[in-house]
Amino acid sequence: MSDKVKTCPFCGEEILEVAVKCKHCGEWLDRDNVALQRKQCPFCGEDIALDDEICVHCGEKIGYRSDTSSNLELPEKLKCYNWCPVFGSIFWGYFNGMPKNILVTFLILWLIGLLIPEMVFYAGIAIWILKIWAGTKGNEWAWNYKKWNSVEEFIKCQTTWAIILFIFWLPTAIYLYGNLK
């Protein structure tokens, strides 16, 4: 690595000659390429550095996608309902990019239903409304969270998730239904 230095034109501090951003003031040194070095967070929409894996504004994990155009556009074939959040919202959501605020909401509602018996009905209704809504956003979250080689790979992975979660969800639902009578 070169030890040659230059002066930052914005703050006057000494920085490496190869630097593209000043480590002291945070200014980009080549303003013409700033747009190429930035991207939009798919969760909050704020401007972040291209290589950021966690949004500095909302704290969400951006994932491994480096191309912002595919981050913003869901392929037409994937604009459909994803059943995974319905069957395993917290488990699927954690590994497939569900925003943290929604995961926390699921946990809080679950705890309210568990700890306050009078609220179990209302918490359950709220959880199901949230699960149904999350299913409409599920493919978008999962598509943006990881790098996928193809739409077919994505569909295969999400189908596997749905089957596994349904296999675990069904006996629980039958047990709970049997105990409600």
Q: How would you sum up the major sheet?
A: 2 strands, antiparallel
Element pattern in H and E: EEEEHHHHH
- The number of helical runs is 5
How far apart are the first and last residues' alpha carbons, in Å? Answer: 72 Å
Count of DSSP strands? 4
Whole-number count of domains: 3
Could you describe the 3D structure shown?
17% of the residues are buried. A hairpin with a 6-residue loop joins strand 3 and strand 4 (47-49). The chain has a two-stranded antiparallel ribbon. Strands 3-4 form a two-stranded antiparallel ribbon. 49% of the residues lie in helices and 7% in strands. It has five helices and four strands, in the order ββββααααα. The protein has helices at residues 68-72, 84-95, 100-115, 120-145, 151-180, and strands at residues 5-7, 14-16, 38-40, 47-49. The model is unreliable at 64-72 (pLDDT under 50). Helix 2 (84-95) crosses helix 5 (151-180) and helix 3 (100-115) packs antiparallel against helix 4. It has three domains: 1-33, no CATH class; 38-73, no CATH class; 74-180, no CATH class. The protein is mostly helical and 181 residues long.
